[in-house]
Amino acid sequence: MSFRPALILATVLAAWSAAAGAETIKIGVTPGPHAQIFEAVKPVAAKQGLDIQLIEFSDYVVPNAALDAGDIQANSFQNQPYLDNQKADRGYKIESVGLTVNFPIGVYSKKHKAFADIPDGGKISIPNDPTNGGRVLLLLRDKGVIKLKDGTGFKPTVLDVTENPKKLKFIEVDAAQALRALDDVDAAAINTNYATQAGLDPVKDPILREDPKGPYVNLIAVRTADKDKPWVKILVDSYHTPEVKEFVLTKFKGAVLPSW
């Protein structure tokens, strides 16, 4: 008769011990795919004693500020060129510890079925940050729409446009506001996470779409002082698992591509 209570007590103590030994970290993400993927990562990490709490940010500026300030322990929303630009501009001591997924950026239109249908002088909205705005200009260059100065690298601006035969007008807006601009322009470049939030299909709906290869793979960032802590390896290894990859491929059907 004493065996069952002893077993229950042992089970409770084991659960308490596991909970007490778990480490909790806060990770900043943007709504949409980044948050959804990390929901799939959470149970994998929990098995390794890492409790993940997600903090959602509605823009691309605050997550790095929050990480640098220590309000969160990691973030997942950006690519390397964007991180490099933020570090150069703001002096953040944060760095990449692992690659995640790629979101080929798309150009969408409610007025035209093909980019060639956009009239001369048409308005194109692009993100106003150097990285995302630059990648749109590179996309337009690669499609033969414009020409850019040599040596602009991954962050050209509208000032670097040397030839613009259709005299397109580039309207720079915050990336998070690109959807609102869609009604007022001929076409808008919209990041995948914001496009999916609005019910757009990032594979079928764009009239132009970025090549999925290149430098714009997203990453997990942590403070430089934390990069060698044990939880960082658990976090990255939990992300880079077959079950998370399968989730990405099944859930997003090509709109988001795993990088591992």
From TrEMBL:
The UniProt keyword set, sorted, is: Lipoprotein, Membrane, Palmitate, Signal
Write out the coiled-coil annotation as residue ranges: none
Q: What is its main location?
A: membrane
InterPro entries linked: Lipoprotein_NlpA
Top-rank taxon, per record: Bacteria
Give membrane topology per the record: Lipid-anchor
Subcellular location, in the record's words?
Answer: Membrane
Q: Which Pfam families match?
A: Lipoprotein_9
Kindly indicate where the leader peptide sits in this chain. 1-22
Q: Might you report a single GO cellular component term?
A: membrane
| PANTHER family, sorted | D-METHIONINE-BINDING LIPOPROTEIN METQ, D-METHIONINE-BINDING LIPOPROTEIN METQ-RELATED
Q: Which family does it belong to?
A: Belongs to the NlpA lipoprotein family.
Please identify the protein, giving its name as recorded: MetQ/NlpA family ABC transporter substrate-binding protein
- Recorded source organism is Bradyrhizobium rifense
Print the organism lineage.
Bacteria, Pseudomonadati, Pseudomonadota, Alphaproteobacteria, Hyphomicrobiales
